[in-house]
Amino acid sequence: MIKLVIFDLDGTLLNTIDDLAAAGNHVCAAHGWPTHTSEQFRYFVGDGVYKLIERMTPAGAAETPETVQCLRDEFNAYYNSHSCDLTVPYTGVPELLKKLDARGIAAAVLSNKPDTFTQQLCANLLGGRFAVVHGQREGRPTKPDESLTREILLQTCVRPDECIYVGDSGVDMRTAKNGGLFAVGALWGFRTRKELLENGADALADSPLDVLEYIG
Predict the structure, then answer these.
(1) 132-190 pLDDT, tens per residue?
(2) Parallel, antiparallel, or unpaired: how do β-strands 14-15 and 88-89 relate?
(3) Cβ neighbours, 10 Å, residue 20
(4) Which residue, among 178, 183, 179, has the nearest Cα to 166 in the 3D structure?
(5) Which of 21, 57, 162, 164 is 20 to 30 Å apart from 40, CA to CA?
């Protein structure tokens, strides 16, 4: 019996890509670097802000830790003021969360987005419906490290076989498999069916409400 669903955030619960692209392009433009489309940013995000900086900047532009830190601070400052300009829950997500709650099934969020932003977006756009919300925390690993799902299971007193994980990227599928969880790929998100299957998806969902098929 499923007692818990762990969700990724960006590309799974919330369509954040236009606000992420705006923040990234703000940094690039400020330094005179080429900017990118929202479609390109779909493949830049997902592995934490440091990887995002590496992917969106020209080769050699972020070679030192000090430079990367400065660029991260610039990105975070802009995103902090604009994270909800265009970001919305995907169609069906609020209904899915309500149905899980009605069935007595807990929900959690595990994201590689900085924890402050993860907490803010979940509270402001998703009504604080989660038993646990974890973004990327300083000094802690990022997904797909298995310790992250293990921590949530311990906090909710749920076994791996009582939990499913829903995400839209290969990193998410590897996170689920590393934690011994059933992996559901979100086809409505940022990445492709091919990427999800190649990284171990046990099932695919065309829309958020399709996740209910795997609750049982």
Answers:
(1) 999 999 999 999 999 999 999 999 999 999 999 999 999 999 999 999 999 999 999 99
(2) antiparallel
(3) 28
(4) 183
(5) 164
